[in-house]
Amino acid sequence: MRMVTRHSRTGIKATAVGLLVAAIAASCAIPEPTPPPADWNTYTNRWYGYKLSYPPDASIVETIGGASTVIYLHGGTEPFASSDQFVLIAAFRSTDECPPARQAGEAQARTGPIRIGQLEFVVREGEAGGSGQSTTWEAYATQQAGRCVSLTYSERFADQVIFEPSQTTTASEVGHTQLEGILASFRWAELE
Question: Which residue, among 149, 150, 123, has the nearest Cα to 138 in the 3D structure?
Fold first, then answer.
């Protein structure tokens, strides 16, 4: 299940913008994501006061001071087999720019609010291209008590896909299922 659905941008006129915003808001009224399985690990960020669960076969890398953390997702049994799917978690001690400042591909992004459990998230999505690969991303930002956390799920694809489409789709679906579990488990915690 995709957290945000894609809509065609061609032919949108000023009078249709309101309808598009309403459609995005409706698509963001998603059912509660499935909680993660019991065997998932728990990550706690004591500097910015949040915690979440992540898959047991994922790799997690945290910067000193906890301002950014990357969860590399794995779609199979081989470590780093799908390291092109990851969640970047960026934390801020200010809500002035929550969601955070522009990302690559921001001009293509859409924004809309969703509620997951007791938390409200602002959602953005977009695409960016680079030398030999393209990236799609979805960002979910939430704030509380002067803190902002943004969780950005990214998938990188080589311009020449070497896998069968069914394998790519399966890896993408696994990545989105894992993202749902991470979002469903996100909780604010006390600062240490």
Answer: 123
